[in-house]
Design goal:
Layout lengths: L20 E6 L14 H5 L17 H12 L5 E8 L13 E2 L2 H6 L10 E7 L9 H17 L6 E2 L2 E7 L1 H7 L4 H17 L6 E5 L5 H9 L4 E3 L14 H18 L6 E4 L1 E2 L2 H4 L16 E2 L2 H15 L11 E5 L19 H10 L29 H15 L1
Parallel strand pairs: 1-2, 1-12, 2-4, 4-6, 6-7, 7-8, 9-12
Antiparallel strand pairs: 2-3, 5-6, 10-11
Helix pairs in contact: 4-6, 8-10, 10-11
Length: 407
Amino acid sequence: MYNIKLTDYIPEPKPATPKMDVAVHYYAAWKKGAARIHNAFNDLAVDFPYNTPLMGYYDEENPEVCDWEIKWALEHGINCFIYCWYRNLDNMGKPVTENDLRCGHGIHEALFNAKYGNMMKFAIMYEASQRWGGADEEDMLNNLMPFWTETYFKRGNYLKFDNKPVLFVYNNARLVRDFFPTPADQKRAFDRCREYAVKAGFAGLIIAACDTRINADHHADLMARGFDFRFGYNAGYSPAASYPAENEVIEAQLNLLKQRFEIDPLRHTATASCFSDPTPRTTQHWVDMGYGFRNSKIWYTTPEGYREVIRRMLAEIDKLPKDAWARRLFMIDNWNEWDEGHFVAPSHRFGFGFLQAIREELTLRDNLPDYRMPQDTGFGGYNKSWIVPDFTEKCARILAEKRAAEK
């Protein structure tokens, strides 16, 4: 039965019960013009049709789109979106408003207006990269913390542990280079942020560093700088050559995690990566932006292999002390990096396969997921902005070529 509305709105999510908080990184760049450094779905439509969401191209600022994503995530055990949070470079040293953000629509237009928004936890990952806005100590205290606290932290569904909001930080190297040359400088600033949070009614503030390097001295430096734990945007895996065997990918992710736990079993979390294929970014004119995608190697897991990655990571986590951060938070790479090439959201290429792997390993499997798509239930019309190519034949051809190359 297709295109017949049986309900007035998107069916309510029936969440699976996760074994711990399961958070997925979310790159909100799919509103037309929001990304600025690329043309989003229009860059994928011509040459990369297999990197297509199963629901089709969509206007990400639409709250209905967000409700579908919340439904799919919750029904497969993901209960938190971690949004990349970008401040415009010219906003440094100034009060922050919604208009001063890049890709802020994912939270402000979509999540905050979604009917099921309060069912999903969320957090922000502060992007301190050179092209976005960093902050010195006073800027953090006078501009960032007031905005974050009032706009995000005080919401009931913001990710907290023991009444402490979690602030994720990407690219601490920029903060070290430009603002906090010594660990004492940065720790003082972070401690003042924690004091600000206490005055706002919280028990403190948890600050996490995005960093997957395996180096005991580097880890000690990050902890001295005031971070509470470390996490990865991905598993931190890069093979010597593209298209390694799947068992190599699985073993490598597991071994990297073991090495981090050996350095510090308490203050590392696990991030499970499904695949990495940044071909769209390496063949477009806007490509690199300093991230080194041209040098990246391509690798994949199948949904079955991804399930093994998660299962074996959980076995390592079970060996940790009871108060280890990895026992509280498991991280997924990534919801919707359609062009950077790593995503677990429903896609034409993988269907719900990666989400099913997450549900099977990270939940009690106490629900029945709904696999009807918007177009199956009379909803849709979510694309007002993007090219809609006739890509069926082309997608099949390109996908066949890609699979042949992977063998």
